[in-house]
Amino acid sequence: MDLLEEYRRATFFFESGDPLGAARLLEPIVAAEPGNAAVRQLLARAYFNSAQLAGAEAQLRALIEHDPSDHYAHHVLGRTLERAGRFREALPHLRLAAAMNNHGDYADALRRVETWLGKNDDGRGPQA
């Protein structure tokens, strides 16, 4: 298998709106090259975009373990946890990302989760 060619194909699938196809191509690349942060990040994004949140979380935690200063990985992990309704767990990652990089999306996500937690004391989401 030509890993570079497969990565290019996966990128094309991802950019064409097929995150599931991208993930299928990226999984064996990450297995073959576990230290390749760019491939792991794209796999995490493919999982996130296809609502495979557990997979996204696992890839993002691996990225953060390797490089705790990766603000983008913290942001996407926070967004993944937010999307899963795990607001209290999302908050520290979103705060770190916003502190490390002054990016509008980071600030917006942080505000959204802080507001949510302020309105819902238990941080578990809407009340039934």
UniProtKB/TrEMBL annotation:
InterPro entries: TPR-like_helical_dom_sf. SUPFAM superfamilies: TPR-like. Pfam families: TPR_19. This is Tetratricopeptide repeat-containing protein.
